[in-house]
Structures are given as C-alpha cells and as structure tokens.
Amino acid sequence: MDQPIIRIQNLRKSFGTLTVIDGLNFDVMKGEKLALIGPSGSGKTTILRILMTLEDISGGRIEVCGEPLYHMQRSGAEVPADEAHLHKMRRHIGMVFQHFNLFPHKSVLQNITLAPMLTKGEARAVAEKRARELLDMVGLSDKADYMPSQLSGGQKQRVAIARALALQPQIMLFDEVTSALDPELVEEVLEVMKRLAAETDMTMLLVTHEMGFAHDFADRVLFFDKGRIVEQGPPAQIFTAPQEDRTKSFLRKIIAAGQRV
Ligand SMILES: Nc1ncnc2c1ncn2[C@@H]1O[C@H](COP(=O)(O)OP(=O)(O)OP(=O)(O)O)[C@@H](O)[C@H]1O
Prior knowledge:
By secondary structure, this protein is an alpha/beta fold. Helix content is 38%, strand content 26%. It has a domain of 67 residues. The chain has nine helices and twelve strands. The strands form three sheets. Strands 8-9-10-3-11-12 form a six-stranded mixed beta sheet, with helices on both faces. Strands 2-1-4-5 form a four-stranded antiparallel beta sheet, with helices on one face. It has a two-stranded antiparallel sheet with strand order 6-7. The radius of gyration is 19 Å and the shape is globular. Bound molecules: adenosine-5'-triphosphate.
C-alpha cells in the first residue's frame, strides 16, 4: 500500500500563550493535491511554514518522505534537527509565498538558477537549461533577461513558481499565492498552477481564500478552524454538501461576499 508522503501526528504549535495548532492529525498521499481553507487566523499558513521548517513546533511528530522532520530530544520535546538534516529535508519541499520574494538585483534567469547552483552544486549550463524549460512552462520564455522590477505581479509570481520548481521538490506548498495580486492578474497564476496540478504527479498543498480555485484544483479539501480540521473531503462534498455547521457558515459568508465556490 502507498505510504503517505507527509504524516502529521498530534501536531501542536503555540506562539507564547496563543495556541495556534491544537492536536492536528492528517496524512498526505504522494501526488495528492490538497487545499487548506478556513477563516483568517485558523493556522493554515503556520502549517505550511512548519513543513518548510520556517517555524519550530511545540509538540507532535511530522514525517516527510518517510523521515521525521524533527528529532525527538531525550526530554520528550521535539526540537529542530541539526542543520545537515534540515538541509536534506528542505530539498523535498518547495514553497511559493504570497509576496514573491524574488531577488530584486538578479535577472529572472538568475533568480531560478541561483539555488540549484548554490545548494546542489549544479553546473550553470544544466541549471540554465532547466530554468528555460520552466520559464517556458510558466509562459515567460521571453523574460529570462528581465529584472523583477520590469515584471507585473502575476509574472513575478510565475517566476517564483518556476524558482521553487527548479530544485525539483517532491512537494510544493502554495501560500495564498494570488492574494497580493491585482484581480486581473490572478487568473494567469491560477492557470499555471492548474496545469502543474494536471500534468505532474507532484504532491501539492495549497492555502487559499479562492474557493472556486480550491474546488477546481484539489483532490481533497481540509476545512480548518482554530487550528483543527473541522471537516475534510473531496471538493464536491465540502463545497456542495458540507456536514458541519462551522463549514456551512464559513461558506455562506464566502458566497455572500460574492465568491464562486
Ligand atoms: N510569528 C508569530 N508570532 C505570533 N503569532 C503568530 C505568528 N505567526 C502567526 N501567528 C498567529 O497565529 C495564528 C494563525 O496564523 P496563520 O497565519 O497560520 O493563520 P491563517 O489561517 O493562515 O490566516 P490567514 O488566512 O489570515 O492567512 C494567528 O492568530 C496569527 O496572528
């Protein structure tokens, strides 16, 4: 039987006295496309940041590709593993952020080749060949020599996607990748992601406030509230026949605000 590529068991995360994730359990299977939805502050971004090892955890266990992300201390507390282990584990995962975080003084091509050359010691010719293929995939093959400041927000975000893919991760995390974009630029980014979802067997986790996109993109939707999963299932079930009152009222508000679900 297939093993989960991500396994989250009894995960807890607090910031000081604020508990943000409270005993969370879920598995993600290889190739699965998962959408994490829920009210603001429910802990969705924190989960992605923990998987990316940008946040430590307060308790529980996470496995990525069959290995623990964190090592257990003798005291029983989970702590970040040593840098070498983290470095290895980070290679499994790529992340695209709300604010593109491109290097402003590097060209589009350099933005994409930098990490493979520096962290994997890839030869420039190899890194550039793949970067050009990825630019082609995101529809920006004519922008390789542009600087980020010469691009629109949608183009910047497509470069950010290409950059994350350049390290050939098994898992991609997308954190509200369209919420900083002008509305007319949203669609071009969503199109790239839909294509990626349809054409690759990469495992993808998406945090989004765009319910229509979550509907079209995901195999499974997790609805979060207060750091816990309230309800989960295929999009058709969550969006058209939710079972839990909290899911129903969340979706009612979204629809009242004029969104497609
Ligand atoms: N570094 C931090 N220090 C203190 N509190 C934090 C920190 N990061 C997140 N939080 C708090 O944790 C809670 C969950 O935040 P998170 O960003 O994960 O929620 P979210 O569901 O992604 O929300 P949104 O949909 O608005 O992005 C919020 O109350 C937030 O203020």
